[in-house]
Design goal:
Its cofactor is Zn(2+). One of its GO terms (molecular function) is metallocarboxypeptidase activity. It comes from Algibacter luteus. This is Zinc carboxypeptidase. It is built from nine helices and 17 strands. The chain has about 375 residues and is α/β, with parallel strands linked by helices. The protein has two domains: about 290 residues, Zn peptidases (Aminopeptidase); about 80 residues, Urease, subunit C, domain 1, CATH 2.30.40. An eight-stranded mixed β-sheet has the order 1-2-4-3-5-9-7-8, sandwiched between helices. Helix 3 crosses helix 9 and helix 7 packs across helix 9.
């Protein structure tokens, strides 16, 4: 399937009721209720606060693919793209019939409904579910483990979102989408099943490079058996970590949503129509490793406390009346020659003050600063 065909599918099937960053069970339940009969929807268990954890099964093929999203409740971009995918599968003219004929998909749209509701990474017991793969101390972790054991997947898709700080390599290219074939031992051995995951990632990267050149990264594969991806990989199931990141001015993650959708279609088509042996894993090794080279805003050459420095600002995500808002916070006041800003403001040696006309300080939070007696909004309109 060509990229222009995938784009047309996305534009036709984008689920318009899901947008921006705050996605909860309340948003997806009406959509699950109206899925056609080709989908099987079930409740797999309950969260700490007794919210249902839904599972969606589609397809009749022999290759089994397990996908789960919002393990971290505030990482919702991959969930939006899942419902775009559901809408596409619902259309019998979409050209995706080979996927559901040759594969069986089991998808958990929101694994951590309590965290989604509170817009937090952790669950209601303040546990990071992605560090609970061995202890299985949380009901959400047990749900995922039980599905893994009963469904017996041939591939796993571990769907996440990443912060705006990440770059593709130590460069000024933002990591808009990142992947990882997790390690399965301390030596980070490139095992046969890791090679299979790498091969699929290589295919997605090739497609994405046509859309976002130099904006795809991979994560450090340092082994942590407490992480779900590492655990499932260690059980010899090829596992792929997806990370939905930042695209210029796309704080709602709608452009990234389309790129994740493209990654879903590209990878699922490949798995459905090829024998994934891992022989073509080496393309993965050419993808640059993520670094942390970005801040949301950098004010260059600002006079602060009689010194010419740079001011680094990171947006804090705040849930306010069921909407995610972004609050600028000063995190660095120093020369930032090794950092890049998604937005950069040149101060030309003028004093930069806070909104009250006082000296800037670390942890200052406000939507504006004063530069050369002019108020400068830190959030782009």
């Amino acid at each position: 399937m060509q990229l222009e065909d995938i784009k047309s599918l996305f534009e036709k099937h984008k689920e318009k009721s899901l947008s921006h960053r705050y996605i909860t069970n309340a948003h997806i339940e009406p959509l699950l209720e109206k899925l056609p009969d080709i989908f099987q929807v079930e409740i797999n268990g309950k969260s700490v606060l007794n919210h249902p954890i839904y599972g969606v099964k589609i397809g009749s093929g022999k290759t089994r693919i397990l996908m789960w999203s919002q393990m971290h409740g505030n990482e919702s971009t991959t969930t939006k793209a899942l419902f775009d995918l559901f809408n596409s599968f619902s259309d019998r003219t979409s050209g995706l019939e080979s996927i559901i004929e040759k594969c069986m998909l089991y998808i958990i749209p929101i694994l951590n409904p309590d965290g989604a509701l509170a817009y937090t990474r952790i669950n209601a017991n303040e546990v990071d579910l992605n560090r609970d793969a061995q202890d299985l101390s949380q009901p959400e972790s047990v749900v995922l483990q039980n599905i893994f054991n009963s469904f017996k997947p041939d591939f796993c898709y571990n769907l996440h979102g990443q912060r705006t700080i990440f770059s593709a390599g130590t460069t000024n290219h933002v990591a808009t989408v990142s992947f990882l074939s997790p390690a399965q031992d301390e030596a980070c051995t490139i095992t046969p099943n890791r090679k299979k995951a790498m091969e699929v990632i290589g295919v997605m990267n090739k497609a994405l490079q046509e859309l976002i050149p130099n904006q795809v990264g991979v994560y450090d594969d340092a082994f942590n058996i407490n992480c779900v991806g590492d655990t499932f990989q260690s059980k010899n199931v090829p596992t792929i970590l997806f990370e939905a990141g930042h695209y210029k001015d796309d704080y709602a993650r709608e452009i990234t949503r389309e790129l994740i959708y493209t990654s879903y279609i590209t990878s699922l088509n490949y798995i459905a129509n090829h024998n994934v042996t891992g022989d073509n894993f080496e393309l993965y090794l050419k993808i640059p490793e993520n670094d942390k080279c970005f801040l949301d805003v950098i004010i260059r050459n600002a006079l602060v406390d009689d010194k010419v420095v740079d001011v680094g600002i990171q947006f804090q995500e705040v849930l306010n009346h069921n909407k995610v808002e972004f609050l600028p916070k000063i995190v660095k006041i120093e020369k930032l020659d090794n950092f890049f800003g998604h937005r950069e403001i040149e101060a030309n040696g003028y004093a930069v003050l806070d909104a009250n006309g006082e000296l800037l300080k670390i942890d200052y939070e406000n939507v504006c600063v004063i530069l050369n007696n002019e108020k400068i909004l830190l959030l782009s309109k």
